[in-house]
Amino acid sequence: MTPERWRRVKEIFRQAVECRADTREVFLADSTADDPEVRCEVEKMLRHADGTGLLDRPAWEGLAERELEPGTRLGPYEIASKLGSGGMGSVYKAIDTRLGRTVAIKMLNREFTHRLRLEGRAISALNHPHVCALYDIGDREGYLVMEYIEGESLASRLTRGPLPIEAVLRHGAEIADALAAAHRQGIVHRDLKPANIMITGAGAKVLDFGVAQIAHEAEPAGGEVVGTAAYMSPSQLNGNPADSRSDIFALGLVLYEMATGRRHSWESHYERAGAPAGFARLLDRCLRPDAVQRFQSMDGVRCALEALHAESSGASRRRWRAAVGVGLLAVAAAAAGTAVLMSNIVPSKRPRAQTAAIVESTPASPEPQRPPAEPSSSPRPPASSRPAMVRPVSFAPPAVSTWASYPGLKRDPSLSPDGARMAFSWNHPGLGGYAIYVQPVNASAAPAMLTEGRAEDWGAAWSPDGRRIAFQRRTGQTGIYYVEASGGAPDLVAPIARPGRETLPQVSWSHDGKWIATPDRGPSGGTQIYLFGVDSGEKRRLTWNTTGTDHAPAFSPDGRLLAYADCVEGVHACDLMVVALERDFTPKRERRITQQGVYIRGIAWLPDGRGLVYSAGRTIGADTSLWRVSVNPPGDPQRIDLAGSRARHPTVSQTGGLLAYTRLDGWALMLVRNFR
């Protein structure tokens, strides 16, 4: 959509909001008769304005469980007992009074009933011995009736001790076979973990397709983060859509837990004897951070596991004959561990340690044979006696903390390019205004004041080389300034009009450090994004908004894109926009990223330049939360639950791993470590 047509959409929307409900339809028909696409866009904005958009529901809505007592009837099903609870609902043991058989009923929490039919369609599309069968669906009450499985979850099994390597390979192949069948039907599980796998006398069963992604099915609105972050692939954690290779990564993590008895972490290290040739290579290939380097199909994983299982079984039989069972017992030895369920956590950015090759014989998996290691001065033990070594993936837990809570209001945090320092605006008690301060992220040193404390200096932003900090001054000589990070007198880049109270003071440096983007009022009264030459003071307009406000500019890490908030009127009903720039920073095309019509309070790019983090709330007086959205490829906004509520002014370190923001409770500065 061209900028001219988008301005027309916003103008029609503004007028439509002022119409009475009984005259709005006539107005829209007359105003958009020549352009159905414009009408479609206006109607989307009106739906958000009417309170039916993504952000209208409180984050806590629907979390309360609906407890069912024994004897409760759901149609022909009588509740016998509660089996357990999960993030999306509870599972009950029940009796089908018509057939006299035992069933399992999954009752969904109200927040997730919109996924009921999706899960039902996913399970019903599969008729597989290693997938829990679906019997019935209760649309109105919000429940699924499924096969009752005699057995225990893999998570429970792991708490009591290790699985023999033979069981790891056998059950792993069964799980891979079930997921391969799902993938052939266009279904991606997205939440594979020990708690969603049952171990029975007949083998493994895969459960809970509650957040499954089905090809050609529209995702329900809601913006929830789907899956369990501890088992998500790096691509999913970066906000990208899942595919079959995401399930392969999750299966690799599950296999690691089954084989080693512990979940991946950066610090842990485990060696075990008796692992078959190629097992560590299989894990390594499943757990590659780059999806292109993993197995490309679940069938490939299944075939590799089946081959390893056959190899392991044959070796066990030979050792049994040779050593009267001692070898078989050695193969069955394994480590113990606890399956840890994690939600709303973020892994470390630190690179994954490579899984080491174990044996020199040809691997059974499709992984190519690696070149031999460099010769060692010490003699090497024979391959059959060397232990298998499986090094874990970097998957550190998050750490959320209050970074600055000293007296006075603090806002607009900005992480330096290397992530070592934080600049921010602080209304120090007794000084009467806001000044720019800088402080090391990981040290207890006191903050250093860079500007005088009697002005209103907001919106700190680091230059790409980390030597200067730009900011917006809102009192006295209003304008864009910068100050050396080491201290000194501020330099005026260019004066700007006194901004509106709700116009964010966010500014952003270009990749080459020669320009600063900031909002400024135009001749027509609207607020647009302008570029100001750092050395020349030259002024260039980047966006056009004659009646509303464009603010919160943010250059992408490579400098080729500029994101900003485009607001219809004032700072209400805003959406994220991204404009592509020529090398001379001339705008060449513009794309709308969201269609929410919300109150936006800060925008930051993710380090890979493919997604954004932003603060948004339904209205100016409503609570705000942090959200993330993929720009390339396009995606739907997802709430960052880890940050909680009343969160504004996000900043993300471009080296990865850190997210900082303002929390309005006490106007403290918060820091999330291991953010991705």
Question: How would you characterize the overall build of this protein?
Answer:
This protein is α+β, with helices and mostly antiparallel strands and 676 residues long. Helix content is 20%, strand content 30%. The strands form 10 sheets. A 6-stranded antiparallel beta sheet has the order 1-2-3-4-6-5, covered by helices on one side. 46% of the residues are buried.
List keywords for this structure.
676 residues; Phosphorylase Kinase, domain 1; 4 domains; six-stranded antiparallel sheet; four-stranded antiparallel sheet; 37 strands
Per the CATH scheme, the topology name of the largest domain is Neuraminidase
How many beta-strand elements?
37
**Main sheet attributes: strand count, strand direction, barrel closure:** 6 strands, antiparallel
Structural class: alpha+beta
Query: Under the CATH scheme, which class of the largest domain?
Result: Mainly Beta
The parts where pLDDT drops under 50 for at least 5 residues are: 48-65, 220-225, 266-270, 319-395
Sum up the overall morphology in one term: globular
Our count of helices gives: 11
Q: How would you write the strand order of the largest sheet?
A: 1-2-3-4-6-5
Kindly report how far apart the N and C termini lie: 31 Å
CATH superfamily of the largest domain: TolB, C-terminal domain
Strand content: 25-35%
CATH architecture of the largest domain: 6 Propeller
Mean pLDDT figure: 78
Give the fraction of residues assigned to helices.
10-25%
